[in-house]
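RETRY 2/3 - previous attempt timed out on the joint model. Re-submitting the same 346-residue input unchanged.
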Amino acid sequence: MQDRPVFDGESLITSQAVAADIAARYPSDQQERPTDAMAELALVLHTARLRFEQGKDPVQTMRWTVDALHKLRRRVAPAIWRELIPVAQHHPVADYFHQDPFTRWSFEKPRGYSGDAQLLDFIYQHESALQSAADSTPIGSALYDYSKYYPSCVAVRERRDNLARMVDQVAAARGGDAEILAIASGHLREAEHSVALRSGQIKRWVALDQDPMSVGSVARDFVGTPVDAIDGSVRGLLTDAYKLGTFDFIYAAGLYDYLTDRVAIRLTRRCMEMLKPGGTMLFANFSPEVTDDGYMETFMDWTLLLRSEAQMWKIINGTVDRNAVDAEVFFGENRNIVYATITTPA
Ligand SMILES: C[S@@+](CC[C@H](N)C(=O)[O-])C[C@H]1O[C@@H](n2cnc3c(N)ncnc32)[C@H](O)[C@@H]1O
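RETRY 2/3 succeeded.
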């Protein structure tokens, strides 16, 4: 039995809490009755189960189900969708989808919360996840082979590569003195792709996370490098509990998707105080263009706050005077992830 980390209460990490916030943010005027939505869901689940039972290609079944759940989620009011989620989770077809080790890890939450770094390792196809994939049933292994190519997963791998590239750019500009802070760093997989880290161009790269298992993994993997793994939380950052000093580049990937606007703005303000002149803060968020949201929220029990460009600007505008900084909001290639950067004057 693994230790379950204690949460700091600053991030909305439970699916119920995130869902409550989503419902408040997206009031709906849709008129669909709960019984209609329930009947449609029942049909989707029944059809998917039949396809599995008849031995049809599991990948086609998953593709079809992901699409059907996405369309249903978009059409019904958030409050009705919330009622549908447990119905899908308790339907016998879940036993098929949970043969996918990625889906199962997300649903079972062995570390006690959604979106842990090991789950991300399934997306990165990192060697730490390969054994579970190899131990899967034939259906599970076919589903994982497909699920890792969801557009949202492709976007997460691109995010990792973008972060490594940005760190390298900052390191090149700072001539070996670069100081980097990764908030909610998970396993810091982007560092494995940083040329600057390998070639000794980084002064320090602080990796802060609230999960002691992830902190331990980073400390072990990057021993003897300038990477400094810190067991810390958003709350600790907000109260300056760690006295980390200042940085050239601060970033958070896979964190803002769990933060309400209020906490996101407080955290971004705090990060701005920790930037050196000419320093950059980056935060990334899944966008409303993801297409596997319905599948994630049901069979993976993984709920995220999706943010549009305008919602990213809302955080920037709540944090800084836009005329005093250089701010940008942009999408990754397939628009499943949206990025915001704020750079202070040199
Ligand atoms: C989806 S993972 C992202 C990991 C990594 N940044 C990546 O992109 O691969 C989210 C991480 O946020 C961390 N996290 C969640 N809430 C946090 C908080 N309040 N303070 C610090 N870390 C937090 C989790 O422990 C987890 O490692």
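The pocket of S-adenosylmethionine is lined by residues 8, 10-11, 13, 115-117, 120, 184-186, 189, 209-211, 214, 233-234, 253-255 (CB under 6 Å). Closing ticket.
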